[in-house]
Amino acid sequence: KGLKKGIEKGLEKGLEEGIEKGMKQGLEKGLEQGIEQGIEQGSLETKRETAKKMFEKGIDHHLIYEITGISIEELNLQRD
User: Fold this and answer.
1) Would you call 59 helix, strand, or coil by DSSP?
2) Digits of tens for pLDDT over the chain (80 positions)?
3) Which residue among 3, 48, 51, 53 is least enclosed by CB atoms within 10 Å?
4) Are the CB atoms for 51 and 70 separated by under 8 Å?
5) Handedness of CA 56, 57, 58, 60 (dihedral sign)
6) pTM for this one?
7) DSSP character for 70?
8) What is the Cα 22 distance to its own chain's centre?
9) Measured distance CA(12)–CA(18) in Å, rounded
10) What stretches of 1-80 adopt beta strand conformation (E)?
11) What is the spatial distance between Cα 54 and Cα 46, in angstroms, rounded to a whole number?
12) Which of 51, 42, 41 lies closest to 79 in space, CA to CA?
């Protein structure tokens, strides 16, 4: 009886520790991915703003695309 209880307690403690470790790793990975996505979105928004300013200054669409990577179609959408 005592051995069975000891094994059950050991399994329960191991499971709790495993869940806690898994949750911590999941949170860290989610936070890391969120930061990466935020940086990417911020970078894209900056490129769009730059492309729009270049477009408003009359710079050739192809040159804007070469510099910013923002397509002509996307620039035309920003025009409205």
Assistant:
1) coil
2) 678 888 888 888 888 898 989 989 998 999 999 999 999 999 999 999 999 899 899 999 899 999 999 987 887 765 54
3) 3
4) yes
5) negative
6) 0.58
7) -
8) 20
9) 10
10) none
11) 12
12) 51
Tokens (6 digits) for 63: 């040159």
Q: Which two tokens stand for residue 8?
A: 């059950």
Burial letters 10-25, b for 16+ CB under 10 A, else e: eeeeeeeeeeeeeeee
Place of tokens 């969120």: 34
Contact 67, 73 (CB under 8 A): no
